[in-house]
Amino acid sequence: MSLFRDFFIALSNNTYLNETAKKVGPRMGANKVVAGNTIPQLIEKIQYLNEYRIAVTVDCLGEFVETKEESLHAKQQILEIIEAIQYFNVEAHMSVKISQLGSEFDLDLAYENMREILLKADECGKMHINIDTEKYHSLQQIQHVLDKLKGEFKNVGTVVQAYLYEAEDLIDKYPDLRLRLVKGAYKEDETIAYQTKEDIDSNYIKIIEKRLLNARNYTSIATHDDQIISHVKQFMKKNHIEKDQMEFQMLYGFRSDLAQSIANEGYHFTVYVPFGDDWFAYFMRRLAERPQNLSLAFKEFSNPKALKRIALYGSVATGLASTLAIATKLLKR
Ligand SMILES: Cc1cc2nc3c(=O)[nH]c(=O)nc-3n(C[C@H](O)[C@H](O)[C@H](O)COP(=O)(O)OP(=O)(O)OC[C@H]3O[C@@H](n4cnc5c(N)ncnc54)[C@H](O)[C@@H]3O)c2cc1C
Q1: Where substrate is bound, by residue (predicted)?
Q2: Which of 3, 11, 56, 125 could make an SS bond with 92 (beta carbons 3.0 to 4.6 A apart)?
C-alpha cells in the first residue's frame, strides 16, 4: 500500500504532467472531484450545496508557482472568487495555499499577496480565509506569514496535520485561531511524521479532543473517516461541547450521502470545493489516499466517448493510461 501511495504522491509532484494536464482539462474522473473552471460553474455548485445546508470552502487550484507574475495571477483569481461569493450571497469562504502566492521563491511577496486577500475578504463581510498546509518544509513559512497577519485580521486560520509529531504543539500555539484538523496528505519522513494509519489516527483523536476542550475559536474536523466522526460526536456529547463550536468538513465529490446525513443531524458542515484548471496534483493526492478512488478514473477509461476525447491528446492519454496500469499492478502486490 505504501508503494501505491508513494507512486501517486510522486506523480503529484511531477511538473511536466501537471503542466500537460492543465491543457487537457480535468480528466480520468477528476471532473467528479473538481467543480469546473469558470466562476458561474463554481457559484452554481455552491448554490446547490447551500440548498442542502452545506457551506463551501473554495480552493482555487494552483501549484508549482515559480514567478511573480504567476503568483499575482493566482491572487487575482482568488480576489475575483471572493467578490463573486459576496455578490451572489452564497455561504462560502476561501482556502488558500501560500505556495500559490509565491512563498517558494519570495516569502515577502506571498505575505503581501495574502494580506491583500485578507483585506478584500474583510471588506466582503469578514469572510474567513484558511491557509492550507502543504509539505512540511513550508510549515515554517506558513507560521511566519500567519503570525504577522493574525494581529491585524480576525478572519484568518490554518490547518494542523495530525501525522506531524509537532501537531499537538501547534494546537497549543493557536487556541485563538480558527483551525482545521486533518490527518495530512503529503509524504513526510519518519523523522518528522507518524507513518502508520494506527499512529496517525491515534494522534488525530488526541489533537481533536485537546482542541475541542481548549479552543477559543471555531474548529473544523476534516475527514471522511466515519469511525473518527462517530468518536468526535460521542466525545462532544460526553463533554457537553456545543455543535456551534465546530463543523465537519469533507472534500467535494466524496461521501456526499454521509455529508448530508451529518448536516441533517444539525452539525455544521462544509465541503472543500477545488476549482480551476490545475487539477492534476490535487487528484493524484486523492488517489494516493485511497486505492478505491481509482474507480473514478476507470469509469472514464471504460467510456468510449471520453476515451476519444482524451485520445486527441495522444501522449497525455498514453501517459495517463500507463499510470493506471502501473497503479493496478501496485494494488495487486
Ligand atoms: C476538507 C478537507 C481539507 C483538507 N485540507 C488539507 C490540508 O490543508 N493539508 C493537508 O495536508 N491535508 C488536507 N486534507 C487531506 C487530509 O489530510 C487527508 O489526506 C484526507 O482527508 C484523507 O484522510 P481521511 O481523514 O479522510 O481518512 P483516511 O485515512 O483516508 O480514510 C479512513 C477511512 O475512512 C473511510 N473512507 C475514506 N474515504 C472514503 C470514501 N471516499 N468512501 C467511503 N469510505 C471512505 C474508509 O473506511 C477509510 O479506511 C484535507 C481533507 C479534507 C477533507
Answers
A1: 97, 285-286
A2: 56
